[in-house]
Amino acid sequence: MAEQRRRTAGSRPVARRRAPVRRRRDHTRWLVPLLAVTVGAVVLAPQLTPVLVDLTATDAPVVQVPAAVPAPVSAEVPVLAEAQGVDTLADVAAARAETRSRAEVAASGGGLVVPQPPRPGRISIMPNASVGRSPVYKLRPDGCGGAGTTPRRIVPGVVPGPGSATLDWMSDNRPEVVGYRVQAVSQRLVGGQQPPPEVRAVDQVEGCQPMTVTVDGLAPGEPYVFWFEEQVTSASTGVTRLVQVGTTGAVVIG
Predict the structure, then answer these.
(1) Which pLDDT tens digit goes with each residue over 56-110?
(2) Burial letters 200-229, b for 16+ CB under 10 A, else e
(3) CATH number at residue 241
(4) pTM (2 decimals)?
(5) Domain for residue 83, yes or no?
(6) In sequence order, what are the beta bridge partners of 200?
(7) How many domains does the chain have?
(8) Does 5 map to a domain?
């Protein structure tokens, strides 16, 4: 048995005991609780301040202060205002009202004085008023039977006759007008190409005078419309062109 124990002890190596590992001390463990306490104090401080102020105001003894009697406005007010740098009496009244409100708040035991913004004594609003004078328009005198309008508008009168029509109008006394042209356009449509209108030309006269022209060769019993045109010469280019200035209604030829 002794030999067997020796063999067994000799066959198995004896395990050495390891020394216990020493853990390093963490010197930063106290930072986490400290930060948590600091954050909680920062968050809760604004919420606890009104409660503490209310408790302090409630525990404070109530002091009875007689109400301030406003002093009557006398001749000394302008002197006081000038000495304190105040411009108007309204500013003096506002300063006294602000002082009175502060005294009342202090007498009520609140302990906190809220500054009040300055308020103007009077606000005046100016109504909307017209500035200047409205222009006066005057019609330009037209001494030539409607030819002085812009754009030009001349509607001749028409007197139908047997197979003809007589037109009359007042001449346009502008220097660039050199003549007139009248066209009789039939209002009865026919198959195919329409017949050409009857055309009459009249020269310009000096000044503003009544003018007439007779258009013949018209079909009796048919309606006609007369186009009235002016021959105008351009002062810059010297080119003469026809400008339509009037159209009559349909007139039935007798």
Answers:
(1) 555 545 545 455 444 444 444 444 444 444 455 667 777 777 777 666 766 665 5
(2) bebebeeeeeebebebeebeeeeebbbbbb
(3) 2.60.40.10
(4) 0.45
(5) no
(6) 182
(7) 1
(8) no
